[in-house]
Amino acid sequence: MKSSNMLTNTMNKNSSLILYHTDGCHLCELAQSLVEQLDMSYEHIDICDDDVLAERYGISIPVLVMGEKELFWPFDGEQLTDFIRSVV
To answer: DSSP of 10-66, one letter per residue?
Structure first.
């Protein structure tokens, strides 16, 4: 298994990891913790700040997006790592 630093180094500079969440969502906090364990940079976007995002992900958060791919909850650290590898 690659280390988190190796995952970070293999990310395309044009690829960004986005965590869609909303405040007070305990599942979103769990997802954020998993992402932070990989020591990767990511955007943390509250879907409540955007009507289109709220409509798209309102009942699905947390959702991780990278490029055109989406990873919907539930996921664990291994699934998150596999997801990132699949898009880099």
So the answer is: HS-TT--EEEEE-TT-HHHHHHHHHHHHTT---EEEEGGG-HHHHHHHTTT-SEEEE
- CA distance readout (Å), 70 to 3, 79: 22, 12
List of residues 6+ apart from 16 with CB closer than 8 A: 41, 42, 43, 66
pTM over 0.85: no
Q: Is 66:75 a contact under the CB 8 Å cutoff?
A: no
CB atoms within 10 A of CB 10: 12
Question: What was the pLDDT predicted at 76?
Answer: 96
Look up residue 35 and give its amino acid.
V
